[in-house]
Amino acid sequence: MITLSIESSCDETALALVKDADTILAQVVASQIAEHALYGGVVPEIASRAHAERIPFLLEQLTQESSLAWSEIDQIAFTAKPGLKGSLLVGQAMAETLAVLLNKKAIAVDHLHGHMAAAWLKQDQKKSWLKEQPQAPYLALVISGGHTHLFYGKKFGEFTCVAHTLDDAVGEAFDKVGRFLGLGYPAGPEIDRLAQKGNAAAVRFPEVVLKDGVPGFSFSGLKTAAIQLFPKVKQEISLEDFLASFQQALANQLTTQVAAILAQKSFPVSSLIVAGGVASNSVIRRQFQTLAERFDLKLFLPPLFLCTDNAAMIGAAAYLYSS
Ligand code: KG4
Ligand code: ZN
Fold first, then answer.
1. R_g of the chain, CA atoms, integer Å
2. 117 and 134 in contact (C-beta within 8 Å)?
């Protein structure tokens, strides 16, 4: 099954050709980071216009990169939600137009299901299929700029949310603290890079305790603590130490909450998927490895280039919906 997929929910315009849920035949991504960086965040009007301008060129590039004929494409997939309305519409219009022209179905994909489906894609496209695939029932943590959600599902696409953030997403905490510190947008990768040179025990951030012990996450307290604390400690503590400690506090909260949920043994799973842009964070990846070992789970962490927004994951999800 060959899927042509389109992702345009936020600030990346991406197209891919994917075979089943595992092989990327071709993919192209045009980032709009430079356009939005000036404003410190994504500007919806700029995003939708940039998607509309780029999609036709990217489609041409994609078809040149693969040797496929149009007739070999079996279905078109597009990100339908969640995301910026105007940006989603650009991708949907292109997908539906192609579907009519090729006489194929246009499959609406949930962006969060896309992030999870990245766990099915081969890490190295040139190597044969070595990696195991996640087994149902699924437990999947999606950590990105807009979401911090833990899902459980017996069938791919039919997920219930087990826990979610009560305020900011973890990526938002990275980005807003980074913006305050003048680290550019998005700040997650830069914080990760600087924190590698820092001491994570330099600053003690408060441990987050949620009301009534409900499963969930909360990052706005840590974000505010970081913004208020930095001006007070910056004479004594290096930026690297400060960021390493802040990143550690975010990572600890993610793993502590997921561990508490796993300890309840309400979900009979053998694998855990951790996906989304923030899943490319080096400390978060390491901590989830340790957690997976502790609970004897097989951990599925997509490779870095498939954690952040891309179209291959959307094509993989469309295939998994029908498999
Ligand atoms: O999944 P994604 O590309 O877009 C959304 O669906 O939101 O995630 C983007 C988020 C941003 O908040 C970015 O700062 C964060 O992922 N991110 C990271 C890292 N790489 C990207 N956060 C922490 N460490 C990283 N290495
Ligand atoms: Zn995303």
1. 20
2. no
What is the distance in A from the centroid of ligand 2 to the CA of 201?
Answer: 30
CA dihedral 293, 110, 25, 21 (to 10 degrees): 50
- What number does the ligand 1 atom closest to the CA of 247 have? 23
Atom of ligand 1 nearest to the CA of 186: 14
First to last CA, the chain: 10
As beta bridge partners, residue 29 has 14
Distance 278 CA to ligand 1 centre (A): 4
pLDDT in tens, 69-89: 999 999 999 999 999 999 999
| pLDDT tens by residue, 150-187 | 999 999 999 999 999 999 999 999 999 999 999 988 99
Nearest CA to ligand 1 atom 8: 277
Global confidence as pTM: 0.95
Which ligand 1 atom is at minimum distance from the Cα of 308?
3
80 near 110, Cβ under 8 Å?
A: yes
